[in-house]
Amino acid sequence: MAALRIVTLIPSATEIVAALGFRERIVGRSHECDFPVRIDALPALTAPKLKTDGHSAAIDERVKRLIEQGLAVYTVDAPLLKKLAPDVIVTQDQCQVCAASLADVEAATRDWTDRPVAIVSLNPMSLDDVWRDIAKVAEALGVAERGKALIHSLTQRMRMTGERAATVKQRPRTALIEWIEPLMAGGNWMPTLVEMAGGENLFGTAGEHSPWLEWEALRAADPDVIVVAPCGLDLARIRADFPALAKRTGWADLRAVKAKRVYFADGNQYFNRPGPRLVETLEILAEILHPDRFSFGLKGRAWEPAP
Fold it and tell me: Does 3.30.70.920 match the CATH number of domain 170-305?
């Protein structure tokens, strides 16, 4: 039997496939796939239809303009995809602005009549869904038992952190910010991770999409801790965007600001990738919320205090 040829069109899928032991079977990726190391040497099959530089408000406006026109946010290189001849394509249908969607992939493979291809679409709304997606990918790759072992390893590691965090006496009231302008709170799996890390999540509901957040609601809640982890942005991009949040009326009066408990966290590599590294995301939150109890060595490379 010929070795599987796999294409992964979202970073979390690439990380799942690699964690299952199929890193060397990936023949194509999305333009955003950058982990594990050297994965970016593979051909990129997707590209955004908009400029992704600039501040968060400008990016948000460009995305909304495309969606209002009924257009996809990303393109899929259909000729290159066909040339790579994958047996399995892993994509997603959870978020139309996060990556190429199931509809995009189905359109690109519609005329494939000469060979079968399995399309695996991920749709993680909650932390439990992430584990189900890992099992789904493992099943598609023919390694269901390996998938179960990976899930067990990841959940056990998270359980250890969660059990330790459960013993804390003070649970900081925490606002997790997923986008700066306009403001958005973290949803999906993020409220669960905040609670597991020993915090009280103020905005967003586990298992539901990330909600828009009114500035006055954040100001009225007056959190003990604010974690800024925008979707798709690394620490350098967050630093550049942060002034849009810090200039808000009343920012300096917030409890978290006065206590110097505002933090930047890498939303691109960790918080917004529903795959194996959500384990590290939980550890980041534990370090931020309870620095006296947790130290995983993530400070400085995965998160940092706001200036």
Answer: no
